[in-house]
Amino acid sequence: MITMKGAAVSAKLKEQVEKGLETLTWVPKLTIIRVGENPDDISYEKGATKKLTSFGLEVESKVFPGDISDEAFKKEFAAINADASVDGILMLRPLPKQINEQDIEKMIDPAKDLDGISPQSLINIKPVTAAVNIAKVFSGDTSGFAPCTAEAVVCMLKMNDIALSGKRVAVVGRSMVVGRPLSMLLLHENATVTICHSRTASLPEVCREADILTACVGKAAMINHTYVKKDAVVIDVGINIDENGKLCGDVDFADLEGTASAATPVPGGVGGVTTAVLAQHLVRAARMKQEKNSNK
Ligand code: NAP
Fold first, then answer.
1. Are 279 and 251 in contact (CB under 8 A)?
2. Helix ranges, 83-178 (H)
3. Which atom of ligand 1 is nearest to the CA of 240?
4. Span 115-148, pLDDT tens digits
5. Ligand 1: which of 178, 194, 273 to mutate, judged by most atoms within 8 Å of the beta carbon?
């Protein structure tokens, strides 16, 4: 079984970012917005800052107290959103309950929305060409920003020369952060996609139909060889902590030996590619801004 490491894909994305930077007249800046002290958020913030800085990009963090009011947060968010020195925004979610997250999804400038959160609804967006990021993903329009993790999975497959057209792909998980947008991106690549979830009957059998299995569940080591067709490719999106306090994915990686042809490890797989995609989105956002400014 081949171990598909994220580092090799990240290195290729770094080259693309460096080429993009050559065409820019300034160093693009990402602003990470964190509310509260959630350890998962802090860990993601650290990883993203390290990766983007190592790619030659600028990163600043804006941290707000976990009990900030809805009104006060919206005021702060509006100021960051309008700040011309900010090229891209990454808002760590979920936000605390007192903040209306859907309002923020509507507020965020689509040109700075690097993780594709704006807005969740296709309803009332007419024509579809006026739709913004997540709606674009669902309508097959590639001009916006897809959620970074979903795009990282597609990068991982394509950069490892794994064909998608006509292939059967099972996506286990249907969240708006990963499973659903990933399914749409795979569909755009002409894969035949089956979206599975907690109510899917006979899940192992359904997964065993797939040439490529992507696990986006959030359940430590749930996917073992009984879910995997012989020689299938397995992509593990999960980030979990096991009973020994160790970081692990949704896939029991060792158990796939002899069944899967290739699989991604956790850690060392999709996670690092997600932040490399974020870097790529930041450069694209800055390039779009530069083009817009030069057309004024
Ligand atoms: P989520 O919102 O909790 O969604 C989990 C999905 O898995 C749901 O659709 C759920 O189905 C489904 N599910 C749960 N238990 C299942 C079961 N026993 N059988 C089949 N399906 C089941 O989680 P998420 O935000 O999508 O994240 C998923 C995983 O990816 C987590 O481990 C998260 O930490 C990780 N993640 C990684 C990255 C990265 O950069 N690598 C980024 C984001 C998230 P229902 O809809 O029916 O409830």
1. no
2. 101-107, 133-139, 148-159
3. 32
4. 999 875 544 545 544 458 998 999 999 999 999 9
5. 178
